Amino acid sequence: MEATDIVLIPVIIGLIELLKLYGLPKKMMPIFSLALGIGGGMFYLFPNDWKSGVLSGLIMGLSASGLYSGSKTMVKRKDCEEDGNGK
């Protein structure tokens, strides 16, 4: 996987956000993130080697869902600190 292939992670995040606008339940977001990552890994990054495609897709899907939940947590903490609750 090259550095330019990491661009798929923000693409996955964008597609998940788009699906969220169309009513995707929050519980399904990590599953769709993994599915999109595996699909991108198998069909875009490694079309001739499915094992490498699945592994890189898992990495991308987990990174995309972790990046989403990590940024969401940071925004919630910042909001709480501004309110004075501190929790």
Q: How would you describe the overall organization of this protein?
A:
The structure is a single chain. The protein has three helices and no strands. Helix content is 75%, strand content 0%. The mean pLDDT is 81. The chain is mostly helical and 87 residues long. 20% of the residues are buried. It has helices at 8-21, 29-45, 50-83.
Topology:
Layout (H helix, E strand, L loop, with lengths): L7 H14 L7 H17 L4 H34 L4
Overview in brief:
Helix content is 75%, strand content 0%.
- The succession of helices and strands, N to C, reads HHH
Number of helices: 3
- The pLDDT mean sits at 81
Total count of strands: 0
- The stretches of 5 or more residues where confidence is low (pLDDT under 50) are none
Provide the helix percentage.
over 70%
Keywords:
mainly alpha, 3 helices, 87 residues
